[in-house]
Amino acid sequence: MGIISGMFMGILSGIALMAGWQYMMRYRSNKRIAKAVDIKLLSSLDRDDLKKICGDNFPEWISFPVYEQVKWLNKQLGKLWPFVADAAEAVIKESVEPLLEQYRPTGITSLKFSKLSLGTVAPKIEGIRVQSLKEGQITMDIDLRWGGDPSIILAVEAALVASIPIQLKDLQVFTIVRAIFQLADEIPCISAVVVALLAEPPPRIDYTLKAIGGSITAIPGLSDMIDDTVNSIVTDMLQWPHRIVVPIGGIPVDLSELELKPVGKLTVTVVRANELKNMELIGKSDPYVVVHIRPLFKVKTKVVDNNLNPVWNQTFELIAEDKETQSLILEVFDQDIGQDKRLGVAKLPLLELEAETAKEMELRLLPALDMLKIKDKKDRGTITVQVLYHEFNKEEQLAALEEEKRILEERKKLKEAGVIGSTMDALDGAASIVGSGVGLVGTGLGAGVGIVGSGFGAVGSGLSKAGKFMGRTLTGHSGGASRRSGSSTPVNSVQENGGAKPL
Question: How many angstroms separate the CA atoms of 226 and 212, rounded?
Fold first, then answer.
């Protein structure tokens, strides 16, 4: 009896152990399957999805690599850097100095390099990705980082102030370079290269300024002037949709497909502003508005004296080259003795506008477009504008390109005559002698404002020197920079406009 009961209990215990083991294995298997499903779902999320889920707790160390690492290329670049740096220094000095003069801010009489050395530390390419493979073209994005040890000294001169050497220290560059290779049937198989900096993420150039043997405060606002000049050159020349086109190998080729052409006209009426911040100790501010899509082609309203709720009702016409990435910028200034103070700025992405549809909008003024660097985030008031976007046809595009040649030449003459301090200066109604009464042939683009800007062109005198010099360096002949049609639009860049709302 004891033997039978023992056997029975042993069998039951064995069955219970086997059932428990099977249950445990099934439970672990289900947990693994559930975890695999969760991981698969998480792997399908991008950075924006995770930011929505995590909010402020999103860890910045999480990365989503879309670029292929090129350690071999960095290794070779490090070996070649002494030779590359020597050639690059010559190119920069030859091409950038005319641009510094072209974009030289008012108040500075001379801005040149007194010393230029790129140092011994080579740039680092974090990764490369092929953005698109179109017939006859290869588009690549290059993640470039550079924290080198350059020695760059600027000789800055201003009225009644002796030349002050300003050193740029701790220079760091973080940007995505877009390179478009135009293919050819003949060796070297590439007929031209288009180079530009992507607008999103925005190019980041960090540096500190230090006066050598003097005080940087000797010229009021000098640091801001240099910052604005650097930002304007990058935005107006290298940031997409603007670019440099460099012919390669001396192959005769039609670059029209790479050219940047105007795509439309923006008619802007600056109506009024409300509740502006007062910047005066006695009385009220004297506001006016500077309007532009490109920094090189600015226009401005009249000045309304002693008024924080000014009414302008002035209309301007501006040219857009890429509706998907460009924005209308409106800067409100207080006219003052010496340097004018900025009361606020607003941005309106052109992507938000519908062609041939008039729209009135009230935009909230911000202290700056980059709010991360601003401590004072108090309300600056609003500005009301009416906008109408018109898309060009082919004939209007060609007419705009022809008119741009005359506009740039007229601005250059005005600068040489001392009417404007820089080709980037804003022109008001009284100064609309640029293009006065000319207009665009058959386009209806009246030239009361006469502002027609369409990129970094070979006809742009000083603006084309960088591309031309690079063309001589690389190909042995002058290959002036050109423009591109909207055939291969890159990553869209839609940014916040500071609270735009239709009325």
Answer: 16
CA gap 396, 441 in Å, rounded: 8
pTM (two decimals): 0.57
CA 333 and chain centroid, separation: 23
Number of H helices, E strands in the chain: 6, 17
472 three-class SS? helix
CA distance linking residue 156 with residue 268, whole number of Å: 36
Q: Confirm if 491 and 198 have CB atoms less than 8 A apart.
A: yes
Strand partners, 331: 290, 345
Residue 388, number of CB atoms within 10 A of its CB: 18
Query: What is the rounded CA–CA span in Å between residue 242 and residue 483?
Result: 8
* H helix or E strand, kind and range, residue 76: helix 71-102
3-state SS assignment for residue 319: strand
* Pairwise CA distance, residues 378 & 364, whole Å: 11
Q: Quick one: pLDDT at residue 330?
A: 93
Q: Decide if 115 contacts 151 (C-beta within 8 A).
A: yes
Q: What is the pLDDT of residue 46?
A: 67
What pLDDT score was predicted for residue 216?
A: 63
The residue type at 482: S
Task: Enumerate residues 6+ apart whose C-beta is below 8 A from 87.
Answer: 473
pLDDT of residue 64: 60
The parts of the chain modelled with pLDDT lower than 70 are: 1, 42-43, 46-47, 58-67, 106-107, 159-162, 213-221, 236, 249-252, 256, 338, 371-377, 421-503
Closest C-alpha among 288, 217, 248 to residue 477: 248
What does the pLDDT read at residue 371? 64
The identity of residue 298, as a single letter, is K
Distance from C-alpha of 232 to C-alpha of 295, rounded to nearest angstrom:
6
Q: C-alpha distances in angstroms, 152 versus 114, 124, 148, 170?
A: 8, 20, 12, 10
Backbone region of residue 306 per phi and psi (left: phi > 0; alpha: psi in -120 to 50; beta: other values): left
- Please, is 390 exposed, middle or buried when counting C-beta atoms within 10 Å of its C-beta (0-12, 13-18, 19+)? middle
Query: What is the pLDDT at residue 487?
Result: 33
For residue 385, the model assigns a pLDDT of 95
The angle, 0 to 180 degrees and rounded to 10, between the axes of the packed helices 222-233 and 71-102 is: 120
Give how far Cα 314 sits from Cα of 190, 301, 388, 425, 427, Å.
48, 7, 14, 18, 13
Contacts of 123 (CB under 8 A, 6+ apart): 77, 144, 145, 146, 148, 173
pLDDT in tens, 425-468: 666 643 332 333 333 333 333 333 333 333 323 323 333 333 33
Q: Residue 434's pLDDT is what?
A: 32
